[in-house]
Amino acid sequence: MDTLGKILVDGALAAWWLYEAIIAVLMAGFSALNVVLDPVLSTVLRVLNPIANIAGDVVYGMVSVLSPAWGLVIISAITGVVMLFLFKYTSNQTAIVASKDAIKANLLALKLYKDELRVTFLSQWRLLLAIARLQWHMFKPVAIVIFPMLVGLSQMGIRYQWRALRSGEQAYVHMYLDEPLSHEVALEPVQGVSVEVPAMAGEQDYAWRIRATESGRFALKFLVDSEMIEKELVVGDKLERVSVERAGANWVTQLFHPIEPLLPSSSPVSRIEIKYPDRESWFYGSNYWVLTFFVISMLVALVLAPVFKVKF
Amino acid sequence: MKLMIFIHATVSSMRVRGLHACRDTAQAPDKSGLHFALGSFKMKLFNVAIMALLMTVAVSCREAHTSSSLGPRVVVVGFDGMDPRLCVRLMDEGKLPNLAKMRDAGGFKPLGTSIPPQSPVAWSNFITGANPGVHGIFDFVHRDPSRQCAPYYSAAETVEGDLGWEVEDFNVPLNFWPFNHQPTQTLLRREGTPFWDYLDEAGVNVHIYDIPANYPPSKSKHGHMCCLSGMGTPDLLGSLGGDSQFFGEGERSRTVAGGYIEPITFSGDKAKIRLLGPEHTFLQLPERVTIDVTVYRDIKQKSARLEWQGQTILLKEGEWSDWCRLDYELRMPPFMPASHAKGICRFYLQQVSDRFRLYVTPINIDPSDPAGQVISEPEDFITDISDALGLFYTTGFQEDHKALSNKIFADHEYHEQADYVLEERLTLFDYAKQTYDDGLLFFYFSSTDLQAHMFWWDSDKKHPIRSPEMAKKYHQVVEDLYQRMDGVVGQVLEEYGETATVLVMSDHGFSTFRRQFNLNTWLRQEGYILPADCKSILRVSGKGSVDWSRTTAYGLGLNGLYINLQGREKFGIVTRRKRDAMLEEIREKLLKVRDPEDGHLIVKEVYRTDEVYHGPMTGDAPDLIVGYYREYRASWSTSLGDISDVMVSDNTEAWSADHCMAADEVPGVVFSNKPILSAAPQLIDLAPTILQALQVSPPALMKGKIYLK
After folding, report:
1. Which residue among B131, B193, B526, B618 has the highest number of C-beta atoms inside a 10 angstrom radius?
2. Between chains, do A200 and B303 touch, taking CB under 8 Å as contact?
3. How far apart are CA A57 and CA A240, in angstroms?
4. CA–CA separation, B85 and B82 (whole Å)
């Protein structure tokens, strides 16, 4: 047992080291890629986010008469149909059918000629090639669909992942600075919001505890030295979009927090965050909404694919 | 629950139908793609329609079921320590209108309590419908005679598990074949059959909240019982009473009864504190796991910021935080994932300026993720509650009376904390009522006990820690609490008065605890404990230890007196032949003991357990139970075997009221919306009465009488 224990311990340590190495390599790769992607995608999102926000408001305005659950069902179903058509017209359907036929044919060959070693190996090789070809034919439509899909998901996330504060509820606001504790910061009084605990400095940020006293959309005004910075706060009972974070230019944060304008690059503030409560529902609440969305949109796509003659 | 079962069954049947439909389609003759697809689509639509139809039928059936076939209902509200004398006075003054309404209809009687009137004993009497000779709980503290008089907690026992597989610094338990290592387990020591087992067997639904003396919760064999453990449930650190943690500037590190006091030292306005967690028992040298908390203070604004595990809270001086989650990581060997113990706590920022003081409640087991800690039956009962209500106290003792005793809390701070507990329990009670259809609903309130222990004072004599005005002011807190509880009863009567048997009961009453009697000092004085200079019956050897070869009797617990019996105690010397005479002798002498201060008799009753207990566990009981007059109780040192120099002294603790006296000095109460026929109902009568009201025949073992009309 001692030897087994030592083997397990050493093996686990080696596996952990390998895992960390892989993560480090991936992170380095992503950072390198980000250097290229960030200027492009950040500019794209700067243009795209306001349009997506308007589109989101229109769509959710239309389903606002329904309950949030039905709204999610309908939007997911429509997204499933849209994605189906996008896939159909951006993919090479003939090549996909051919690749799938090749997969089927080679699987059949493996079954029929299992005693023929040469045919078996050849079929396995061809099967591998056919799968690779199918993946390649899938890649193009997926690459085209993925960005609008992320933008769409982002619009859903700002509505389903968190909920607006309720009147009487408290929340924490965090302001992260590039150089902490070297600035004078203050949160100006706002009608409808009371500041219960003024700015308390931490290691990297200032935090406030606020309490919403009435419903509405409020602009929290922060004075950082002599610069005024605003951050939106939403209070209410309805399904409303909330901006958890107002951030500087970075395509990832722009993607996930599309509502508010970017912080000026000259600002000492790197981001302002409001800890909104998670939306609680096993169907359309935090994290579950993504599951619901994917299940419904994929089910709709699967059911309607034969109807619209889409192959995937 | 029934609805869920029904829908589950319906959905299961739908799944089978769906499967069959798919199989039929798959076996269908070859068709063109579009036709096949449309056929499949139609089939799916058909299935969806069938599903919707079945769901509608299921819901309709359930509606019909609930409206037409509800079983009998009994709602029991247990107010720990509710006192009949105070109730009667307040009812006469018109301050308890709802209880008075039941009294006026013949539904009120003082309720005979257990011998001794201690909560675990009394609630075990209630639970089993039997005396301590059957359930085997005689006191908070029992002794192990095989180790002479080693004390242990009476209601539950922790059985150490196997050591496990030794790897590096760990003992890894392998609870599978061929190793089958047994984990450490906590076992309920209460014997006898709880009355709800008979209901469970008869298919009657049982919902029990916070019942004392039932940790770990007894299992439901037939799935009709849900139970949340109450008094006796430990905190995450394993402490039965709940160990709070207090951090103060200028404090020295020490452990006190009920918690830990630690210094906090600021560097500038920043400090680090360490929250103690459970003991990591998988380590070969077990140690407590901790969570580091960074504290920032702002003296000018009188506020503080606390940060741990990615969480931040801001508090102003005098503020309590909401419940906060703590995730204690129990590291394991590298090839295994770490274990986690999930806890919750609330922070109370007592003071920032002058001297920083931060109080942390006992780390409660997280009700939303108990992570293997079984504090409800079924195990997911507590997570269901937490899904609906969020986080709440899960320890058995929720009111932190020890913080008041240790002078960490001032009176008003304890009152505030205890009031929060009550608010939380009232919310839980609302949930309990909402989820209750029929059968038994039992709900326990600890506030009437633990607020009374600290605030009750109806004596003309001087209070140990309060001026007469303050003693009066805080006794009023108890009276206000009774009025509030009367409002709760009013709601129950409004909701269930016409459709259910409603019982409002307490396990015992209350009295001022002004003077404390050191039983062992008296026994030493009378020559039963020797030598004359011994200091503790638990001291094994050396100066101050007891000479067991000459000692004939000793006291342990709050009411227990044991003979040092040959063949039972490890160093027993009294023969069985001499036992009876010695018991009578001690009894007679005790009944004559007077308080040197004013000559008042101290002991009202001395019960021989072989006379008042009947059942298989009687042999484990103390030989005598000492029942004190009101205002007297066993001293603090007696309960754990210490022998002080003074036999009778003032109780100087904040814990200024008690009930561990003679049973007839502190009866409980029973109210009902039905007339009570029995002239002198007892606690053990309640179980058969509840069974009868729910149309289940009480077993022959239950000796209590049925007393409702």
Report:
1. B131
2. yes
3. 9
4. 9
DSSP symbols for B1-34: -HHHHHHHHHHHHHHHHHHHHHHHHHTSPP--HH
- Quick one: A264 and A295 in the same domain? no
Q: Which of B40, B165, B314 sits opposite A209 (nearest CB)?
A: B314
Return the CA Rg of chain B: 29
CA dihedral A298, A303, A308, A312 (to 10 degrees): 50
Residues A157 and A299 in one domain: yes
Pinpoint the alpha helices (H) of B458-569.
Answer: 468-496, 519-525
- Asked whether the beta carbons of residue A198 and residue B303 sit closer than 8 angstroms, the reply is yes
Q: Are residues A138 and A179 in the same domain?
A: no
Cβ–Cβ gap A9/B312 under 8 Å: no
Q: How confident is the model at residue B4 (pLDDT cuts 50, 70, 90)?
A: very low
Cα distances from A69 to residues A167, A278, A296, in angstroms, run 23, 16, 12
Same domain, A174 and A156: no
d(CA B644, CA A66) in angstroms, rounded, equals 75
Q: Is B244 helix (H, G, I), strand (E, B) or coil?
A: strand
Q: Do B333 and A8 touch (CB under 8 A)?
A: yes
What's the complex ipTM?
0.86
Q: Within a domain: residue A153?
A: yes
The answer, yes or no, to whether residue B65 has pLDDT greater than 70, is no
Q: Looking at residues B288-313, what average pLDDT do you find?
A: 97
Is residue A141 reached through a cis peptide bond, with omega within 30 degrees of 0 on the bond before it? Answer: no
Of A8, A200, A203, the CB nearest to B314: A200
Residue whose entry in the numeric block shows the structure tokens 């076992």: B187
Single-letter amino acid code for the residue at B269? D
The pair of structure tokens assigned to A307 is 């109807």
Write out the H or E segment, with its range, that includes residue A200: strand A193-201
Distance CA B387, CA A245 (A): 28
Among candidates B502, B476, B480, B507, which has minimal Cα distance to B490?
B502
Total structural domains within chain A: 2
- For B485, phi then psi, to 5°, come to -65, -30
Residue A157 lies in a domain: yes
pLDDT digits (tens, 9 = 90+) for A163-183: 999 999 999 999 998 876 678
Residues of chain B with a CB closer than 8 angstroms to some CB in chain A: 33-34, 36-38, 40-41, 44, 165-168, 294, 296, 298, 301, 303-305, 307, 312-316, 333-336
> Measured between beta carbons, which residues in chain B are less than 8 angstroms from residue A16?
334
Cα gap A87→A98, rounded to integer Å: 17
| Residues in chain A, overall count | 312
In terms of residue numbers, what domain contains A148? 66-161+288-304
Closest CA to B565 of B629, B608, B520, B622: B622
Boundaries of every domain in chain B:
2-68, 239-371, 516-663
Residue of A nearest to B294 (CA): A202
Q: How far apart are CA B601 and CA B381, in angstroms?
A: 50
A25 domain-assigned: no
Alpha-carbon torsion angle A37, A41, A43, A47, nearest 10:
170
Question: Is A168 in the B-facing interface, judged by CB distances under 8 Å?
Answer: no
User: Is it the case that residue B93 has pLDDT exceeding 50?
Assistant: yes
CB atoms within 10 A of CB B556: 25
Report pLDDT digits (tens) over B7-47: 333 333 333 333 333 333 333 333 333 343 334 444 444 45
Domain identity same for A109 and A85: yes
Q: The CATH number of the domain where A175 resides is what?
A: 2.60.40
Residues A270 and A174 in one domain: yes
Distance CA B610, CA B430 (A): 44
Place of tokens 């009137």: B117
First to last CA, chain A: 51
Q: Are the beta carbons of B315 and A307 separated by less than 8 Å? A: no
CB B402 within 8 A of CB B241: yes
Residues A204 and A135 in one domain: no
Does the residue A10 lie in any domain?
Answer: no
